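Input record, target 12 of the design panel.
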């Protein structure tokens, strides 16, 4: 068995990259810049007091209006079935804090509804278990 070859820290001279033609997407300064978060958040000064958690489920109530931002339109298309805030954040590649701002604006506009997930009890209710047991005994 031969030992693996070690990589050099300073590789040998490599050919220079091909020159970039003007107007091509690889030209410096011509790449698509992402939107700044304050642009996505909309105007400041609005009261945002919705209590949103990572697992809060969001459901769309309406189709995207013509005045909706691209983020709001994407959220409404995604939320035809209940999705958590963290899932929406991952799908839209936006931080959680930004999602809460966008969702709060949409909640106040009545475009979406938010609900907490159903939490199951760790121990079943004794009366339900007894009713099931008596029902099985009667069979």
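The sequence produced for target 12 reads:
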């Amino acid at each position: 068995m031969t030992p693996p070859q070690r990589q050099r820290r300073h590789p040998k001279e490599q050919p220079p990259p091909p020159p970039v033609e003007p107007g091509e997407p690889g030209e410096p300064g011509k790449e698509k810049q992402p939107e700044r978060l304050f642009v996505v958040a909309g105007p400041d000064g609005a009261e945002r007091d919705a209590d949103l958690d990572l697992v809060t489920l969001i459901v769309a109530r309406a189709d995207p209006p013509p005045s909706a931002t691209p983020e709001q339109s994407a959220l409404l298309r995604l939320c035809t079935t209940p999705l958590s805030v963290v899932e929406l954040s991952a799908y839209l590649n936006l931080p959680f804090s930004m999602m809460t701002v966008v969702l709060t604006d949409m909640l106040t506009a009545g475009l979406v509804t938010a609900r907490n997930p159903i939490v199951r009890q760790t121990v079943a209710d004794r009366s339900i278990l007894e009713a099931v047991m008596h029902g099985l005994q009667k069979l």
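The chain has five helices and three strands.
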